[in-house]
């Protein structure tokens, strides 16, 4: 007959496995320094490209800039408007927020995403960020190997590989945000509640 300790180990390990399987990718804080371009009119382009099944969702939150935001143009499955939270779903192939802006010195935002692995025959979903001029052409030249002049590219669901590019007039820093994820805390709490209940029941039976 399995001991209470054995059940306790099983519950905790199972809860941690479930918590891990429910995790989204750790959030990233992006800080973009555009001080040399301050006062320039341009556009922020947030692009989310569907690589195939299954679907992923990404969001931009806690957006902050010392520049001035203008009108935004949305393409695809996008909800929300900056500086509030904006959510992208890849139920369509191309999903974009094209945000007009007069650049300041610093822009920052928090990036969150699910991390569903691509099915066989699919590519990872991809999120990228660009600085464009008022006509929609690249405002800066970067070492993006595709020639698209992205400032960064994040492949989602495979190895979550983040590629940060460099060039003149800007710099990008991405920092993981350490936090106790709510799903983990909730599931761990349920596990501890179950352990406590099991332990009390065992003690009553032993008396």
How is this structure best described in words?
The chain has helices at residues 4-22, 182-206, and strands spanning 25-33, 41-49, 57-65, 68-75, 78-79, 86-89, 94-102, 106-113, 125-133, 152-156, 162-164, 171-176. Helix 1 (4-22) packs antiparallel against helix 2. Strands 5-6-3-8-1-12 form a 6-stranded antiparallel β-sheet, with no helix packed on it. Strands 4-7-2-9-10-11 form a 6-stranded antiparallel β-sheet, with no helix packed on it. Strand 5 and strand 6 form a beta hairpin. It is globular and about 45 Å long. The protein is built from 2 helices and 12 strands. The chain starts with a helix and ends with a helix. It has 2 domains: 1-23 and 181-207; 26-180, no CATH class. The protein has 207 residues and is of the alpha+beta class. It comes from Nitrosospira multiformis. Residues 1-24 form the signal peptide.
Concise summary:
With 207 residues, the chain is α+β, with helices and mostly antiparallel strands. It contains two helices and twelve strands; from the N terminus they run H-E-E-E-E-E-E-E-E-E-E-E-E-H.
Tell me the helix content.
Answer: 10-25%
Radius of gyration: 22 Å
Largest sheet: 6 strands, antiparallel
**Outline type:** globular
Work out the oligomeric state of the chains in this entry.
single chain
Mean pLDDT, to the nearest integer, reads 80
